[in-house]
Amino acid sequence: MHKGQRQHNQHTVQKPTSVMVWGCISAHVMGDLHICEGTVNAEQNAQVLEQHRLPSRLLFQGRPGLFQQENAKSHSARITLTWLHSKRV
């Protein structure tokens, strides 16, 4: 390298691993925590809800609860919204 020249370093940044966590909690009981690694699409999101929402809901034993989720694409997709509507969520 000659005097006055700049050295350029090139760095590769990898996309961080994506993780989705689904859980259920109240003042009286804590349900299971389900972890999905990688990007979750709408079909996978509906499967997670199908497999984990009802068993967790049974823990509440009729106590009122609030279903809450962020506005991720898989949460607002037609498949997920149809599933939620069919289960009256």
Q: Care to describe what's here?
A:
The chain starts with 18 loop residues before the first strand and ends with a helix. The mean pLDDT is 78. The protein has three helices and two strands, in the order ββααα. The longest helix has 18 residues, at 42-59. Helix 1 (42-59) packs parallel to helix 3 (78-86). The protein has a two-stranded antiparallel sheet. It is elongated. The protein has a domain at 28-61 and 70-86. With 89 residues, it is α+β, with helices and mostly antiparallel strands.
Kindly summarize this structure in a few lines.
With 89 residues, this protein is of the alpha+beta class. It contains three helices and two strands, in the order ββααα.
* Global Rg: 21 Å
Count of extended strands: 2
Share in helix: 25-40%
User: Which class of secondary structure composition applies to the elements?
Assistant: alpha+beta
**Low-confidence region ranges:** none
Strand content: 5-15%
Order of helices and strands: EEHHH
Chain-averaged pLDDT: 78
Kindly, what is the distance between the CA atoms of the first and last residues, rounded to a whole number of angstroms? 66 Å
Biggest sheet, in brief?
Answer: 2 strands, antiparallel
Envelope shape: elongated
List the total number of helices: 3
Strand order of the largest sheet: 1-2
